[in-house]
Structure formats: structure tokens, C-alpha cells
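Give me the 3D structure for Helix-turn-helix transcriptional regulator.
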Amino acid sequence: MGRVVPFDAYVWPLTDPETSVGTEPLASIPPPLMPALPQLIRLKYLTEANRWTSLAATARLVRPADSLVWRELLRAHGVSDIASTVFRDRYGCWGFLDLWRIGGVFTSPELTFLDGIAERLTQDLRRCQARTFTATGGARGPGPVVLLLAPDMQVLEQTPQTHDYLMRLLPPGAGMEPVPASAYNVAAQLVAVEEGIDLRPPCARVHLAAGRWLTLRAARLGPAGRSDAQIAVTIEEASPGERTAVFARAFGLTTRETELLMHLTTGADTRAVATSMFLSANTVQDHLKSIFSKTGTRNRRTLLSRALGTG
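Predicted structure for Helix-turn-helix transcriptional regulator (311 residues):
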């Protein structure tokens, strides 16, 4: 990508396909900005200009001053333009990419190139997420674990198990402490909700390892409406419903196929599913065959073990 569209830094997080909240980021930013990472993420979520949740195509900062993150932070570090691309399909939002340029602006041909590869990359990102769904067969970890953030999103306290989770979510370099990027993202989404920028819930599901999925949520401590209160971010095993919902999106199931899968997770048989969905038993079987084909499974037991993460 960089050979066609030169850039000086980038931020490329995966997102929860339903809430669009960032999870695992791949990034390369100037070292002086690392201490300001919580502020950078917070400002990104509060910036309405070219926000990934509203982008229809790749765009640059035509008027940089409209961008809160540029105006309050990136301008001081020499960033002159940002090209933003979202990776979204009819099944959800799978990530977004910000390319930063120091000196000069992104050209129309460069934006066209980025827009042209977005569909293929979206498919690849969704398929990569689909491949994480395996039967874990192991016991769930203790939870929830908690990370306590100050109003400016600096880490204040954490439960003993939090460090272990963060080490696995985003492994740091040798001798470095883990960066709680996923926690910063859900906390920033909480602030965006409070400011009326985006009303999606401040939560995100993220793959940990070996088929395990976690759910992160953010909430203010203390009385409602206190923007100066601390923020608690909880990290716990994704519930069966939360996990199955992402599973269905990752494998591209239709609305009816997803509904059928949800019925199956309750233990319902074909007759019960047909009655609940007002379908014939034969139609249910046809939907099942389609689900098996899309998920690469051959029977209900294997399908459910992958969707639910059970052995």
C-alpha cells in the first residue's frame, strides 16, 4: 500500500462489527505521540470529520481545522493531512484505517486507489475473524476483570488478572508493558456517547486467543452525567449470544440464517425452530444446509461448538 500511497504514520484498528468500536490496532505513530495515546484515541472518537462510522468512501481532510484530533494534537507534530478508509460490508464494520502525511496532501488518484482496495480488504478482514472461531474446550477465565481510568483516560488501577489479559490482547515488545488500546477505545466511545457524537454502545467483542472471545464495556463511576468521574472498563468472557452474533456476521449469514442459529443455541430441534420461525421443516433444513456450507461445518454439533466455543 505504501508503495502506491506514501504515508508517514498510520493507525489501523479492527472493530466490533456491530458497534464499530475499535479493538485490536496495528499502528505506527511518531514516538513523541506514544505518551499521548489515550488523548489521541479520545479525540479520534470525538472528531466528526471523516469519522469511520459515517464514511461512505475514502476521504482526506479537506479542511483540517474541522478535525478535532488534528487541531488539538496532530498539527503540533507536523501532520498535514489524513486519509481515512473504512472496511465495512453488509455484515458489519470490520476496521478502519487512517494514513497520516507530514508535508503535502493526499491526491485524488491516491484516494481512488485506497477506495478501490477497500472491498477486498474488508472481505479478508471478515474472513480472518471467521477463522478465529474454534471450539475452545477449556474453562472460562475468572471475570470480569477491571481497568480503572481517570477522566483523561490515564490508567489508575487494575485487577490482578487484567495485566495478563492485556498482554495477550496486544502483546508488547520485549521489556515493555502492554498498551490497553481496546480499553481506551471503549472508554472513548463512552465519551462520544456522552457528547452526542455517536450513540452506539461503549462495548466491543475481541478475539483473545485459541477461539476465546472477550467483551469489553465502559461505564462511569458515580452519579450519572458526571463527565469528570472515573471510567471503569470491564473485560469478561463473551456470552454465548454475544459470541454467536459475531460468528454469524463473520461467516456472512443472512438475517434468517442468523435467527435460525440463535434458536439452535437454545437446544431447539427442527420442529421447534420451524414453529418459532413460521417455516416448514424442509425450509429449516435448506437454511441449515446453507449455514453448514458457509461455516465449513457438516452437522449441528460442530456448528454449535464453533459458534459457542464449547468442546
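The beta strands are 9-15, 22-28, 59-60, 81-89, 92-101, 145-149, 155-158, 203-209, 212-220, 231-237. Let me know if you want a second pass.
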